[in-house]
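We treat protein structure as text, and this decision shapes the records that our systems exchange. Because each token names a local backbone shape, the row as a whole describes the fold. An entry from our holdings is shown next, in its original layout:
>
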Amino acid sequence: ASAPLPGKSCGLDSQLMCNQTQKDDNDMPSEEDFSSFVPVIASVLNHITTRNQEITCTSEKLKVFHSLKVPPIGTSDYLNRIVKYAYCSGECFIFALIYLDRLITANKNCHITPYNVHRLLITSVLLAAKARDDTYYSNAYYSAIGGISNAEINKLEGTFLVLVDFNLFVSPETYDQYKTYLMQHSSSTRDAPAMGPPSKAPQACPSSSTGATAMDEDDNAQTGVGAMNTS
């Protein structure tokens, strides 16, 4: 189905599109940048979820994000679906990665696993679009992209905000740090998924159970940007 047309006023969940101000085309990332760092984000998340697939130590804080079984759509295809249908700026995906890193770094025993990565990802992009973009779709639209109900994504959004202490501000310095990290690793990410439509549409995830990793826990490589040297 095609995306709905932009609305002209903001509503809560009755409007599928909120327009606040006119977006400046010059503020968008270049196509080259966009096609480079999104596959790296997919590779980062794939690496983390593969590493954490056997984790049994879970945190109640992430219970609402946890599926009873691993969703049938892979992380890369799921991210590609969000990229295709969310119509948000390229910067949003860097913001989303920052938010994920911020969440797992601030909360002990919270881990990104194959069971919770999908809900965490769609929620982080939703919040990134609201924080970064002048024009963004409503929760109802994002729930359709993510294969979950509107009520559930509302709950996920609230939980995510609590876990990051409602801190969605990203300084230019932090943004540049994460983007530089992604761009530096884009040339070495040969197995990252190409931009384009997913191989199959996501199915609604089963209800939560429990689950959770910190992006900066990689022993072999600093997969999470939170582990980067900030000097």
About this structure: Residues 51 and 113 are 8 Å apart (CA to CA). Helices lie at 31-51, 75-86, 91-106, 117-132, 139-146, 150-163, 172-186. The first strand starts at residue 17 and ends at 19.
